[in-house]
Amino acid sequence: MITSAWVLTLLIFVSVAGLSWLCVRWMIAYLTRREMLDTPNNRTLHTGAVPRGGGLVIAVFLVLSSLLMAVVFPNWILYVTLALLMAGWAGLGWYDDQHDLTPQLRFPFQLILAVATVATLGWVNTILSVQLGWFGLGLTVIGILWMANLYNFMDGMDGLAASQAIVASITLSFWFSRVGNTGVAMVCVVVAAACYGFLLWNWRPAKVFMGDVGSITLGAFFATMIVLASNRHDFPVLSLLILFAVFVADASITILRRAWYREKIWLPHRTHYYQRLANIGVSHQYIVCAAILLMLICSLLATITVLYRDMIGVALVSVGILLGSVIALVRWLESQHEKNQHLRNSKSELND
User: Fold this and answer.
1) In which residues is Mg(2+) bound (predicted)?
2) At CA 320, angle to CA 314 and CA 322, rounded to 5?
């Protein structure tokens, strides 16, 4: 039975990935005709206009798989609710991709969707055995908003957001399958497969970007999975944060640093750690592969804490050391780059 389940899962993954690849191929032509193009700005790292909005394919597979699970499994209300919430996030993202909404216009709709999530699916009640009560409700709403937006912030390099989503979705699928929630596990498998099909077009040099319809929907989906995993299956919230530590750490530290220096945090920029590496000439493929490796390590550590709850402290320290070392490495590489630039400028002046 276990073997047949794995074979079925693999067949579903391959089938969805293939369909996703075909749909994204069609979307590239459609987006180009509609002139839905992402032009370079202060935040982006690409040099030419690239179609954006290909993440609609991922969002559609997410919604359809949720509706299919509503037909297959008895707890249909959960899956219909998930489908409606994700359709709401995707609709907002798709409209934003077409009309470039300001943060002030986006936020009220995002807040409504976040509140709707906690109203229908519940909220995080406990962290480290501490009962949060109503404080947990507000914290969960903020967390959903932050997760949705940070995924959008981090979607700034070819293949980065999609590859992280694949690792996260496969990990979550394994967790949910272990506690018997096959429906949610299969939705996660479909998301991973859809992201893989998209990634084949999004790997550098990207032929298409996922856009807000993809990045915000994925961020909201993962936030919703955190809520479900925490309040319905008692997965430690910290385990889930460890899983997403690469994106959470980069986005959170960057925005706190920008706020400290009184920069306008809602404006485009290129100061995320992955962008800073690209700014000094590190290969995009190398950066994305390094991020995948970091995500795999975090996935392993997070899974260990789900299986052995008493290992959370060790895992947190390990992730802290790992990401702290990466941050230190980025700063060292930047300092070396500045020194080399200074030496080159000095030599150029002497030659003149």
Assistant:
1) 152, 212
2) 100
Query: 212 among the known binding-site residues?
Result: yes
CB 268 within 8 A of CB 41: yes
Using CA atoms, how far apart are residues 94 and 91, in angstroms rounded to an integer? 5
Each residue's pLDDT tens digit in the chain (352 positions)?
Answer: 557 788 899 999 999 999 999 999 999 999 999 989 987 766 656 567 899 999 999 999 999 999 999 999 999 999 999 999 999 999 999 999 999 898 899 999 999 999 999 999 999 988 877 888 888 999 999 999 999 999 998 998 999 999 999 999 999 999 999 999 999 999 999 999 999 999 999 998 899 999 999 999 999 999 999 999 999 999 999 999 999 999 999 999 999 999 888 888 777 788 899 999 999 999 999 999 999 999 999 999 999 999 999 999 999 999 999 999 999 999 999 999 888 887 776 666 556 5
Q: Per the annotation, does 231 bind a ligand?
A: no
Paired with 51 in beta bridges are: 37
Tokens of 297: 């390590």
Opening angle at CA 102, ends 96 and 103, nearest 5: 100
What is the span of the domain harbouring residue 121? 2-351
Tokens coding 34: 């509609």
The candidate with the shortest Cα–Cα distance to 150, out of 294, 253, 301, is: 253
How many folded domains does the chain comprise?
1
Please, are residues 272 and 250 in contact by the beta-carbon 8 Å criterion?
Answer: yes
